[in-house]
Write a structure and sequence with these properties.
The complex is a heterodimer of chains A (407) and B (368). Chain A has 407 residues and is of the alpha/beta class. Chain A has helices at 5-22, 47-62, 76-85, 100-105, 124-129, 152-158, 166-176, 190-199, 217-231, 246-251, 263-271, 307-317, 320-328, 340-346, 351-356, 370-385, 390-405, and strands at 37-43, 67-73, 92-96, 131-132, 135-136, 140-145, 147-151, 184-185, 235-236, 257-260, 277-280, 291-300, 333-334, 360-362. Chain B starts with 5 loop residues before the first helix and ends with a helix. Classes of the chains: A alpha/beta (407), B mainly alpha (368).
Chain lengths: 407, 368
Amino acid sequence: MSLSPARTAAAVTAAGLLVALTGCGASDDQGSATGAKLTMYAHSSSPAEDETLKKAIDSYNKRGRNTVSLKILPEYDTALQTALAGGEPPDVFYLNDNKLPDMAKNGVLEPVGDKIDNPDDIYPSLRESFTYDGVHYCPAKDFSTLQLVYDTEAFDKAGVEPPTTWDELAAVAKKLSEKDRPALSFNPEFYRWGVFLAQAGAWPTDDDVSRMTMDDPKMRTALEHVAKLHADGQAATPQQLGVNWGGEALGKGKAAMTIEGNWVVGAMETDFPDVKYAVAELPAGPAGKATMAFSVCYGVAAASKHKAAAIDLVTYLTSPEQQLAFTKEFPVMPSRQSLAEAWLAEKPELKAFVAGADYAKKSVFVPGFPTVIDTFNDGIQGLAKGNKKTDEVITTTQKAGEDVLGG
Amino acid sequence: MADSPADLSTAPAPCTPARAHPLRPGRRPRRGRSRLAGRQGLAGWLFASPALLGLGVFLVAPILLALWVSFREWSGLAPLETSRPVGWDNYSDLLVESGVAQNDFAKSLRNNLYYVLGVVPAQTFLAFALAVLVNQKLLKGKTFFRTAFYFPSVTSSIAVAFIFIFIFSPTGLVNALLSALLPGTISLVWLDESTGLIHLLLGGFGVDSAPTLLADHAFMGLSWWEWISGPSVALSAIMVLATWTTIGTFMLIFLAGLQNIPEEIDEAAELDGVTPRQRFFTITVPMMKPTLFLVLTLGVIGTWQVFDQVYAMTSGGPQKTTFTPAYLVYREGFHNAAMGRAAAIAFVLFVLIMAFTGVQRLLLRKED
């Protein structure tokens, strides 16, 4: 029924050590760029994506440079972590941006970000997400941004247009809210509320994540603005509506608007094909437009014995042709700026997501920061529910962050 | 950690080689005897070696290794040799140093303490009651009831957890039932309700914020007011689930205990004119004491290790009210790249469980 923590920790560390003892240390030798057998780990978001990835790898294998064996894994983070701790990691692997600081700090990654063809074509904000201590570690595979996703029928019925400012948002929300049906629903967590912080010109830390900046009037404005939407019944958490996330709230008609990223497109297609929706840019706050970007990169393991071959594979996968072919099938956007137009030509309705790339805030911090985000989320949940005060949230998050960043 | 290799090593397999002084088995010369004992011992160790090896590799070594890791800073992302020694830092971060790590740990202890205090008595009492019910001789459909009561224990806990998410959802069964029974519509968001039951109760008496005495004093970075919150509504839902899934197993243990009570004792009591009620309290209950101890011990150990329901249903939320030490082990190890701290939590939890079991043993033994 339950799993003994002592045993779990013990088993994990033991497995790590056993493999570590058998694995040999990484050599400086980059190996040859061809003729290697490579392993690649990837996570899966949909069967369709798995198919496309397999196709891409097949076509690479057919070129006869290297042979890649692809493993698409469930419980991806745990699987990747144990492989890394064991000292026999996959040569190439998907890496979520929020994991980058931990990985880079621990010397797990080979810096390959600038070794692909034309690396400057990648959006600066995405390069930034995968940069730690000034080193661009891995090239972004693709990315998503958060924008306002809304139910077009509900908007038509209420006779409103997508809001472009906070004031308009409040006005539109008021018109759309009905008894037991709030206008807006999104998860009470930093990775959603953060857009409002950025729109107000506030952020938990300064730009190089060296200092906490929670105690700021702009932060107070932003938090109080969103808390008020909840208090007035114009916004509700998906949990309060009996669903798991904003997309589901929209699909089930429990809210007219939500704040979600590109993945909402795939989910709506499979789960709620009949719901008509559209995407607009998030309303601008006192400090203008802002959103958050999420990305995944192709990491190359520092312990890989075939680094040159791994770079060859990554170069292939990030080439404009491959990237366009890959993202064409999915709502995620290519990480190369030069492909934006070609991608949009196929999906003009997702223009708002692409626009977000210009003003998206990177949501990557430093090692150890997840506890601070947890504490902030605790506060955000309290604000959404109305049982915590803004000052309390600011103080506890500031303090939690100082524990991690120092002073 | 229940089985120890000690009982295997102290009892080598009895084997008597044919050559060993067949004429005077009782009075062997000293030297020969010790040589023989040595050889016998060797054989014993040899026979026990597969089991010892297994226990060593999969139990002793990992535990020692985890203990070692708990004194190091290790990300769990790179091989173990990249870790560095930090002495007692991981432990002091949890227990002494005030900070977010200690605060989270204190919350997890508080939550789990209420969880243990709620689940253990409930599951023990209910399991005992059910066992007595299905042990009745005149009960019809005994097998059916036994199977039915045991059923939750056979089901995968993750599957059950997901079913309970639906049952406790705002439009779920629990709310529908309550709405039917109580005036008005109940739309409580069970799994998203962070208010503690004791706080709710106090709120009923008009105490809805911390009195200064409780607000100003803190232990492990958590104010007394927060310590006495009681389990949050969300945690209570998980407690109901845990009780429901475990009573089957414990009912089975109680049932075995009940059937071990010799029938003659009951018959003798009946001849003496003892009422069923007296018989239950003066014969059945005292005779069930060893079983009761077993169930309580297993219950305490199991409840201090709760993980899967939290992982599946609430991920530690809302507002950290379903954090448990076992869940923190997972979070620190796999999300926060702090394997050393995760191992330290595991060992603090281990000590805690040992302490709880020890106290319980003392209490139950005293009454004998």
